[in-house]
Amino acid sequence: MSEVDWIARPQLRDPILVCAFSGWNDAGEAASAALTFLQESFEAEPVASIGCEDYFDFTETRPTIRLEGGVARVIEWPETTFHAAVIAGAEHDLVLLQSPEPQLRWRTFCRTVVEVAEALGVKMVVSLGALLADVPHSRAVSITGLASDESIVDRLGFEHSNYEGPTGIVGVVHDACARVGMPSASLWATVPHYVAAAPNPKAALALIRRFEGLASVVVEASELEDAAEQYERQVSAAVASDPDVKAFVEKLEESIDAAGDEVQFPPDIPSGDAIARDFQTFLRQTEPEDDS
Fold it and tell me: Is residue 191 classed exposed, middle or buried when 0-12, 13-18 and 19+ CB atoms within 10 A define those classes?
């Protein structure tokens, strides 16, 4: 594993690898926000990173420049990092993988991820993801759980995926796990497509709560709960100020509340895509200014 830069090799108890990739698999930044929250909550320490040069197209995932000391210009490259968290009293410690979705050499990248997991004694891999859907922001976030292991499916009521079509890096990670016999599961949150550009702490919180049951850990998330409540209030206020958006969201709410009954949208209500475009512009215009 010459591509892996090892910082430490801690002794972990039956660890679970939790991974989140920003980009295609991360609507509303919910998955990456959930993983960052886990990392900070458990004071996870860095253990390894994978070199970025072979896996990223820097015209797609660009490095950034920051000023250090107000003078020196420092380039920050895309990172694939592993952190480890020892959780007292829990059945499992955690290894946390965070990365942008790479553009190149997915199979090699995912084999390297699995090799790091094996070196750290990982017993199961759990990916966090979020997808855009026709769901209202005002209802509970729907979480879909998929798993490769029958015991996980039975214990937590997960599903076997019958999806066929394009996949992201998450799908390739799970395929790499299956090839070495490592159990894996995936948690997906739904994010309202009409407010996709805004970070969604409500979906991040839902992912964490579902992960608690899967990993048998307890996460103190009052800070994220407050952020989720503020998010819902802000979006509700913005929705109420625009009649077209308000009508669209009310139809989504009726559809959810009808528990699967088909709801037809009247022809005088604009399309979801048009609503989303206009609403993103409205939210940007109404963001509070930073007083700092």
Answer: buried
DSSP 12: -
Alpha helices by DSSP H, listed for the chain, are: 30-41, 106-119, 150-156, 169-179, 201-215, 222-240, 243-257, 272-286
Report yes or no: 200 and 229 within 8 Å, Cβ to Cβ: no
Q: What percent of the chain has pLDDT over 70?
A: 86
Phi and psi (nearest 5°) for 204?
-60, -45
Among 56-60, 110-114, 272-276, the least confident range: 272-276
Q: What does DSSP say about strands 124-133 and 184-192: parallel, antiparallel, or unpaired?
A: parallel
Where are any strands of DSSP class E within 26-158?
A: 45-50, 64-68, 72-76, 80-85, 94-100, 124-133, 143-147
Give the distance from CA 109 to its chain's centroid. 19
Domains and CATH numbers, the chain: 4-221 (3.40.50.10900), 226-286 (no CATH)
At residue 56, does pLDDT exceed 90?
yes
Residue 20: what are its φ and ψ, rounded to 5°? -145, 140
Euclidean distance between CA atoms 218 and 184, whole angstroms: 20
DSSP character at residue 263: -
Nearest CA-CA partner of 140 in 185, 186, 191 = 191
The band of 146, judged by pLDDT with boundaries at 50, 70 and 90, is confident
Q: Is the pLDDT of residue 292 over 50?
A: no
Where is pLDDT greater, at 199 or 197? 199
Q: Which two tokens stand for residue 266?
A: 């009247």
Nearest-Å Rg of the Cα atoms of the chain is 20
Stated as kind and residue range, the H or E segment containing 185 is strand 184-192
Distance of CA 3 to the CA centre of its chain: 25
